[in-house]
Amino acid sequence: MISTYLSDGKSSKLYRKLVDEQKMSLQVTAFNISLEDYGMYVILTLPQGETSLAILRDEIDEEIEKIQTSLISQKDYEKLLNKFESRFVSSNASVEGIANSLAEYYTFYGDTNLINSEIDIYRSITREEIRDVANKYLNAKQRLTLNYLPESKK
What we know:
Strand content: 5-15%
Low-confidence stretches: none
Distance between the termini: 44 Å
Number of strands: 2
Structural class: mainly alpha
């Protein structure tokens, strides 16, 4: 939900701030990579023009800090819930989608009945839980910053 809030679509917080308003970035995305033992949370951005990577990092940190210190607005929360419900309905709108969902639920959770309750799991997530998860996992002291830059001109 945090990834969706930060970077899913043109109305997301980071996209609106870095791409639309401040014109510092060409693109921004955030996503979770879940693994069996450990995972990682990735935020990527492509700077525009001469924008420094440090400034982009500070702008991203500012948005993360907002999530960590205050609750997202009720309007943004409802928008998140609507997005997840819409995706769920869309992904299960065909026989192929239903089959994929059932296979995933069985393979990863051993419970095909999750198709009947997955959306309720998302609906049960509170704004307070979103803030708490941001505090727990989006900790700057547990961060690796990778700057992937083009080769310097010789």
